[in-house]
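hey m, so remember when u said the tokens were messed up on ur end? i reran from scratch. heres the input so u can diff it against urs
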Amino acid sequence: MFTTGTATDYNDLAERLNTFLTAKGSAFGLTYTGTGDGRLTDYSGGASSVAETFTITATSPTSFDVTGSVTGSIGPATVGTPFAHATLEFLISAGATAFVAGDQFVLSTAPKWTSLRRSRGCRLVATQGNEGTYAVQNLVDGKLNIWPFTTSSLTSRSWNIYTTVTLPQEVEITFFEPVTIEAYELTLHDTSGQGPNVWEMQYWDGGAWVTLDSRTGIVFYNGIPQTFTIASPVEATRYRWHITSLRYTQLHMGTLRMFRQADGVDACFHEYAWKAPGNDGNSEIYTGLHGFERQDADYYDWEIAGMDGWLSGSRFYEQVGFQGNLYVPLWNAPIPYWFVCDGRRAVVVAKVSTQYEVAVFGLLDPYYSPGQWPYPLVLGGSMSHGEFSLWDDTDYRWSVTDNRHRIFTHADVGGAPVGTGERDPWDTQLRVRNIDGSWKAIEGSLSDLITSTPQTYYHILWPTRCGLSQLDPGPGATYDLWPVMPMLGDVGNGYNTPGQLPGIALVTGQDLSAETLIRQGAVDWIVIPNVFRVDRDDFCAVRLD
């Protein structure tokens, strides 16, 4: 199924995606046989969808019988009137040629995705040090004490004030929706102990700041978190950490976590985690996203992630088999979007200014049986950095134009090979989980160059690696849609191809433009350029099904 709309900003876009995945089951795989040329559109599962196949058969030019392989008959559908049931929703529209009895649509459904964690995050403003490398946003998004960083890099991922500190110091935390905070955790990342030792945690009651918790004489030790319980939690949107005394002369703080009463989740950290059911309803496919922003660097982004499983008590980056550092650069302004999903994967297309950002997360359409390759997880985004940049780096902004910023069908490391080893799994915009559980970087081009002779030690993407620059449309302006296949291995030893990207194809861009619809059978494909690039081999197509 798919939906389209316009989100107010990057945070709203994530919330809409979460609703799209978890509110209803998915519907997919639409086919049609018959005489009439009308269409079935706006199809989705319902709140009670299960894994089954629906047959929708015309009984007259304006009426259809709807029957599920599990639920049985769920009533008649009328042309021109939306059909709504707890297991399936759709609209049949008439065409120039009327339907006749026996015309038939067939599609499948899967259960809705499960929300494992939902936290919309917050915005932070500090009295001092609220911009640059040592900005207050590092308290939430400094990626401290987590893979793959060492303590040597921690000081530049903290909220630090090296100049004279003006007291009181305040950090105001504004959540996107009311939350009840029952405890908060602070961590110092400075060996000299330059932390606060007297403060109040307060909330805004609509007219004044009210103290929830007071602490005096607190001593922090480098890298050791301390948790403080709020005796009488309240629900609020705005909180404030009011610091009135320091242990020494400077202020170096690593992390601030604020725990929700309902589930113990860190409400400051913007994250979603999902378990997809598979199209059979019996699978467990784990993916998620982390939203992060820096107002001083003017970026508002997603980080796409995949996992082997989910532990409710562990942080986002601590999940088993975690793979991340794969980004979708967005902005804090309206974002037109297209969401597509079934029970196995989701695809996101977001329009930022005049360019297009794309993400995919879930399972490949497999070429191996589940017993041979049980978990062919794929992650694709529009930006990668090879190594982690500081959070205030404008390299995360949507306006970046180098080869780190490409959609995953045209994955590129943006530089010449170094040595003879394979790429680090962080290096490209497309990653595939290998049969042994390791993650592999998939390369579609090298420094935007297309070659028919792949590097001997890279995992490559076909047919991107060979290009579509010589292809023209077929007779009558018809377009071939080419499956996109990650190939793991090397030239000398051969390749394993676990499957193809789900519902995504390459198409020559000759005589095409962004958002052109190509109809194949009963379903449309939307044409998307490689961010802002519009050469004929820079286009892909996403199946709106």
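this time it looks ok to me. Helices lie at 10-22, 138-141. if urs says something different then somethings off w ur setup not the seq
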